[in-house]
Amino acid sequence: DGGITQSPKYLFRKEGQNVTLSCEQNLNHDAMYWYRQDPGQGLRLIYYSQIVNDFQKGDIAEGYSVSREKKESFPLTVTSAQKNPTAFYLCASGALLRPNQPQHFGDGTRLSIL
Amino acid sequence: RKEVEQDPGPFNVPEGATVAFNCTYSNSASQSFFWYRQDCRKEPKLLMSVYSSGNEDGRFTAQLNRASQYISLLIRDSKLSDSATYLCVVNRVSGGYNKLIFGAGTRLAVHP
Question: I want to staple A94 with a disulfide (CB 3.0 to 4.6 A). Which of A103, B10, B70, B74 is the partner?
Fold first, then answer.
C-alpha cells in the first residue's frame, strides 16, 4: 500500500542532544513537508522540499535541519538549538504545484524532553 | 489575527444531532480548501475537499463562499465515531510551493 511512514512513534531527547526523525514515502510525490503541532494549535510548517537536494525553510525552521538525498526520504533533525522541542511532529507529502491536491500525512512522532 | 480562524469549540452534541463548523480565512489568494479530521493523538486525515459549488459526501456537506472568505462543514445525524477535531485548511501557492495553512481546529464530542 502507498503511504508515508514516520519513525519512531515516540522519541525522548536529552539536553544538548540532536535527534533525527525519519520520514519515508512511496507515493511518488515530489513535495515533502515537516510540520510541528503543539496542543490547541494548528500545524506549523518547519521545512519543505520540492525536489531532491533542495529544501526551504518554513515558518519555524530555527533549531531544525533537514536533508533530501532521495525522493522518498526527508529526515528531520531536531538540534540542541531548539529549546522547546516537545511537540507532535508530522511529515506530509503532496504533488508539486497542484493546489487542488491535498497533502497526505504520516502518523507522526511525539518528541519529549528527558 | 490568524490567517485561518475556526470556532474554538468544543461542541458537545447527542447522537443524531446536526452540527455545523465555521471557518474564515483572511488571504484572498487562497486557492483550495479542505476539511481534515484529526483523532486524539493521531495524524490529520483528509475528510473532504471544498468546492465553490458546495459538495456533499454522505452525511457531510461542505460549502465555500469566496466573496465572504468563509468555509463551512455540516454533519448530519452525528455518530459517536464522528468525535474528533475538525481542521479547516486552506492552500495557496506561496514562493513557488503549495502552502497549507491550518486552523487550530474545533473539537467535536458526540455522546449517547
Answer: A103
